[in-house]
Design brief:
By secondary structure, this protein is mostly helical. It folds into two domains: 11-361, no CATH class; 370-436, no CATH class. The protein has helices at residues 2-24, 29-35, 42-57, 66-79, 85-103, 120-153, 159-163, 166-188, 212-220, 226-246, 248-263, 269-277, 285-292, 302-329, 336-349, 352-361, 370-384, 386-391, 402-406, 408-417, 424-436; strands at residues 116-117, 209-210. A two-stranded parallel ribbon has the order 1-2. The N and C termini lie far apart (79 Å). Residues 415-447 are annotated as: Disordered. Pfam families: Zincin_2. This is Putative hydrolase.
Length: 447
């Protein structure tokens, strides 16, 4: 009997939602689409309603991230221009020359797979797994908080109806979030020029990629020969990909840190309750604004701040190393300084879509200490050479820290010392090895 009552209440709730999604409810579907961050396009509105109706019929309790992928690919395809064979040939040649130039300035070996030239839609497909990995903790937190608030604020006469529909509400909320993520990633596809442009390892550790359409657009506003722009961006992309292939632990460490930070993000239930209490059915854009301006995500905890500082340090170290190596490899380019400054400013400010992702998920992906990290790498290079510089990526324990960025001279002094003054851990390992090799004091001798 209890199961029958629950099923009946769920059916009642589904009928109510179906009426709403058919356009017979109080909210105009066009306004619902606006709340989801979608343009006022009849086809997009119909697609949104179809997805929500599908979510109602889904028995699972997870988020269908295929919706985000489909949304992002559709948006990216709208701005995609197919690159011409001659354009692709130019970039392929730039990548070949860039690889030769990098061989002259770093011992980090070449990639074992050929770089790819991707369309914006292809970039979306290859990178979406990482975007969903970053966004899932926030999406789940929103769904949990929304369900909790609705249960706490539902009139008593509707409790029975809602009790059988919580899973459905989670699916609907997850669908709206997935479509928003798709919107953000689709917009981001029109801003990035390469696989490593965002700084995080979005592609496989051995994969480098350029987006021809975006590369040509990047250079169109600069009074610089396009060949120089192409070569500079190709060197940067190959350097980034080579680093993550060489330091195989770096990708895992980076993504583990990002995931740990994201999993500690939670949604402010009080903010959702306040939003629900003042919600105007005729102005559903309030919902979109609340989800994209970061107001639902409470201030960072001390643990999150510390985790974010570690992430920013890793980002800065990676980007700083790439900057220094790229500068060394592109000395033949007269305009390399101007291109480098354009890249730095672009990374420091980020584009509209990157800002939208930061507020949607609560995670900024900008290397705030990029210039300081580049200064550190350059000093190591100048004082000790490129081989010693690149050796710092051979093991996670050797990677410079935030303190090294603060005081690069101390780092150089320590490296020049050659480790002849072991720290406590090194000494303990040395003692253990000596002990195991049989170098023990003889009986009667003092240890």
């Amino acid at each position: 009997m209890a199961d029958d009552a629950e099923n009946n209440s769920e059916d009642e709730f589904r009928d109510m939602m179906r009426e709403f999604l058919s356009g017979d409810g109080d909210i105009d579907p066009a306004k619902l689409a606006a709340a989801a961050g979608l343009p006022n396009d009849p086809a997009m509105i119909r697609h949104l309603l179809d997805q929500l109706q599908s979510a109602m019929a889904t028995s699972g309790d997870g988020i269908n991230w295929d919706i985000a992928l489909e949304q992002a690919k559709n948006l990216a395809a709208q701005s995609t221009v197919v690159s011409l064979p001659a354009e692709r040939s130019k970039l392929e040649q730039s990548l070949h020359v860039a690889s030769l130039w990098l061989n002259d300035v770093t011992d980090i070996s070449e990639l074992t797979t050929e770089p790819k030239l991707l369309s914006r839609s292809e970039w979306v497909t290859l990178t979406m797994p990482i975007w969903t990995q970053l966004a899932e903790p926030v999406a789940n937190s929103i769904a949990n908080s929304l369900t909790e608030v609705l249960e706490q604020n539902t009139p008593e006469e509707m409790n029975e109806m809602l009790s059988g529909a919580s899973k459905m509400m989670r699916n609907i909320g997850g669908t709206l979030f997935a479509m928003q993520l798709g919107q953000v990633v689709g917009q981001l596809a029109s801003e990035v020029v390469s696989g490593g442009d965002i700084g995080i390892p979005l592609l496989d550790e051995q994969q480098a990629a350029l987006i021809p359409q975006s590369v040509f657009a990047f250079g169109s506003g600069l009074d610089i020969p396009e060949e120089e722009v192409h070569l500079y961006l190709a060197v940067r992309e190959l350097a980034h990909a080579r680093l993550f292939r060489h330091a195989k632990w770096l990708r895992l460490q980076f993504m583990t840190s990002v995931t740990a930070y994201a999993h500690d993000i939670h949604i402010d239930s009080d903010a959702i309750a306040e939003l629900a209490s003042g919600f105007d059915p005729n102005n559903p854009e309030e919902l979109r604004d609340a989800m994209t301006n970061g107001s639902l995500i409470p201030p960072k905890s001390q643990e999150q701040k510390e985790a974010l500082e570690r992430l920013e340090t890793v980002l800065a170290l990676v980007e700083g190393w790439v900057d220094v190596v790229t500068a060394a490899a592109t000395t033949r380019l007269p305009s390399r300084g101007a291109i480098a400054e354009t890249v730095r400013r672009r990374r420091a400010s980020g584009g509209p879509a990157e800002s939208a992702f930061a507020t949607l998920v609560g995670l900024e992906l900008r290397p705030r200490r990029l210039r300081e990290a580049a200064t550190m790498w350059q000093l190591v290079n100048d004082e000790l050479g490129s081989q010693q510089r690149d050796a710092l990526w051979s093991h996670p324990d050797l990677m410079p820290t935030a303190a090294d960025i603060d005081d690069p001279a101390a780092l150089v002094a320590r490296l020049r010392d050659g480790g002849s003054t072991p720290d406590d851990i090194d000494q303990a390992i040395s003692d253990l090895l000596n002990d195991e090799s049989g170098e023990r004091p003889h009986e009667g001798e003092n240890p």
